[in-house]
Amino acid sequence: MKVLTVNIGRPRPNPWKGISATGIDKQPVDGPVAVSAPGPKGTGAVGLAGDRCYDVRNHGGTDQAVYAYAREDLDTWERELGRTLSNGVFGENLTTLGVDVNEALIGERWRIGPDVVLEVSCPRIPCSTFQGFLERAGWTARFIGAAVPGAYLRVIEPGDVRAGDPLEIVHRPGHDVTVAVAFRAFTLEPDLLPRLRFAEALPQEDLDRAARRATG
Questions:
Q1: Which of 56, 61, 63, 157 is the most buried (most CB within 10 A)?
Q2: Is 80 exceeded by the pLDDT of residue 216?
């Protein structure tokens, strides 16, 4: 298991969401990239130095510090869409190899290289920017239906990451709530929401939503 590439966003206009720019256009970079906790959502800060988000209401901050997507899932989408998908094209900071990102447990911890430890926090939920950037009508619905969203991670221990760094799972919590299960609960299968109460590493707003469903 390893990080295939580390990807940093290039700001570009965002005509799809009514805000000035987007950082979804991420490209692989050479050399080490510093990773640190960005602090609360609302400033545009993310976990990787040199990157940022522009939809500060919905993206960035502690619980969405780093986004990971598996190269294997990109390869599947390449075959389905009939087009080349380069590393970073889904807006991911880390393109992984040998990791089943969607079967990672919420709260699972990854050590990347000698220093960095990240914790799986929640799935990525697609938005209009994602569909517009890929230039594919109906993409949001198709992505949701596939339930392979990739994972957001928070920074537990800062440091540097590089392309080729080994990735090791160093902690797995005692529940069975995976990234894919959480994604399905938030999208097409809300009856799964009460199950998410056991995934204590979810963002607090998601835990609150699960609790309301369980008692409502």
A1: 61
A2: no
